[in-house]
Write a structure and sequence with these properties.
The protein has 118 residues and is an all-beta fold. 0% of the residues lie in helices and 54% in strands.
Length: 118
Amino acid sequence: VQLQASGGGLVQTGDSLRLSCVVSGRSFGSYIFGWFRQAPGKEREVVGTLRWSNGSIGYAESVKGQFTISRDYTKNTVYLQIHSLKPEDTAVYYCAARPIIMTVYKYWGQGTQVTVSS
């Protein structure tokens, strides 16, 4: 499975941004996709997950109501919509994938930088 994340950039406080993660490779119907972020000087954290087979979505408590995950079957793409961006959302955002039977994310995209100016 290959993951290609894009959509980051420099935005202002209050803006919205949609990140994309294009998935390719072997069949991934039994995979879970995760969006992560790593802010400067902090550990990487998961912000949300999506189970491809049934569309089940979960969010970290810290981003509920601000982040929205979705997918497009026709484009093999997972999205992360971020609303009302704040400077503390500045981070490198990654998409990752793992088979459902695994607990560790096996495949990672290259990351896309989101910088929010105040």
